[in-house]
Design brief:
366 residues; D-Maltodextrin-Binding Protein, domain 2; 10 strands; 48% helix
Length: 366
């Protein structure tokens, strides 16, 4: 019996030593691989619109980018300000909201390629108690399973200086406030510029502004959207926060990004059942366009546009991607509803025309 135990013990000892050697070698290989991966990591600096701050701060996004060897540090900058920055050589990329700002930035830095990894829709956040009055006055109608906000009717009321108390069938909000859409500051923010794009299109007979002459004709009307608001925030986070926390009394109609609204409902612990999203007719897409300044900036643009994990994570922030299944899956997972497609979508004016209108409005603020 003892003779049999000896060889068994020797075999077990050999196996144990062999296993330890294997594990040690495996761990060393893993450590070497990790060190090699770490040595390949590059640090990028970039300027982004505030609406993408949460996405880049998400640990899952950080890890996905790290798998591409990218460590990304971002700074918030208003999209219009970003397009005019002169210190871009200190950064690897700019990531504004809106095509006009991105094209201007591309021209400045002579970027050969742009990346559009995701986009969102401009919308108007409002309140269910207001819907009957908005419908009765031709501002809102149901269409295709969602609520449409008529920009033409709105501009007509704004031109007459209509106040909420002047609206018929309006027991819920009969105040002396003007019927206006709260926006960000058109001088600094893309969402304000997109509101201007929509209003100028409608005021120009449903045509994109092409010349200074056309702009001059519509400016007396569309500038009042901004001049009569009072204090305006420099980024979309401000008016949306007022909408969420202060309610209908402060913010009956607010121009927002669809992604903002859906992201809030998806991740809040307690949804306000009176919150409702209206889709302007016409509406406009905001493309989040990455402009690379360096080769590493190009690597980031490619990763954001092609990596399935990053595309899926973008959809979890309410953003739309080239694959509609991502957005549909996000809506289903959070029991949310939004139109799969929008038909009446317009293009913004060129950067030069938009800048011309903004500068003319800016003169009236002084």
């Amino acid at each position: 019996m003892r003779r049999a135990i000896g060889p068994v013990l020797a075999l077990l000892l050999a196996l144990g030593v062999g296993g330890a050697i294997y594990l040690s070698a495996h761990r060393k290989a893993a450590d070497d691989q990790a060190k090699s991966a770490a040595s390949r990591q590059v640090m990028l600096r970039g300027m982004i619109g505030s609406e993408k701050e949460g996405f880049f701060a998400d640990e899952r996004v950080v890890e996905a980018l790290r798998s591409h060897g990218l460590l990304v540090h971002v700074e918030k900058v208003g999209s219009r300000q970003l397009a005019l920055r002169q210190d871009w050589k200190s950064y690897d990329f700019g990531f504004p909201a809106g095509t006009p700002a991105a094209l201007k930035l591309q021209e400045t830095v002579h970027a050969r390629q742009l990346f559009n990894p995701f986009f969102t829709v401009m919308a108007v956040a409002s309140w269910k108690p207001l819907i009957p009055a908005l419908e009765a006055n031709g501002l809102v109608r149901a269409e295709g399973g969602y609520q449409v906000f008529d920009m033409g009717t709105f501009l007509g009321l704004a031109a007459k200086g209509t106040r909420w108390r002047d609206l018929k069938a309006n027991p819920s909000y009969a105040t002396g406030k003007s019927v206006l859409i709260n926006t960000t500051d058109v001088r600094t923010s893309n969402s304000g510029a997109m509101a201007l794009s929509l209003a100028s299109y409608v005021a120009n007979g449903n045509n994109v502004i092409q010349t200074p002459g056309e702009a001059k004709k519509v400016l007396p009307l569309v500038s009042q959207m901004f001049l009569r608001q009072g204090l305006q925030e420099t980024s979309t986070a401000g008016p949306f926060e007022d909408y969420v926390t202060m309610g209908m009394g402060k913010a009956p109609l607010v121009m927002v990004y669809e992604a903002q609204f859906l992201d809030h409902l998806a991740h809040t612990s307690s949804r306000n059942p009176d919150m409702v999203l209206l889709y302007p007719s016409p509406t406009i897409f905001t493309k989040h366009t990455l402009v690379p300044f360096t080769e590493n900036g190009t690597r980031l643009g490619e990763a954001l546009a092609t990596d399935p994990t990053l595309q899926q994570l973008a959809a979890e922030y309410g953003l739309r991607t080239s694959n509609p299944e991502h957005f549909a899956g996000f809506l289903k997972a959070h029991a949310l509803a939004a139109p799969a497609t929008l038909l009446e979508v317009i293009d913004p004016p060129s950067y030069e025309m938009l800048e011309y209108m903004i500068q003319e409005i800016e003169k009236q603020f002084r």
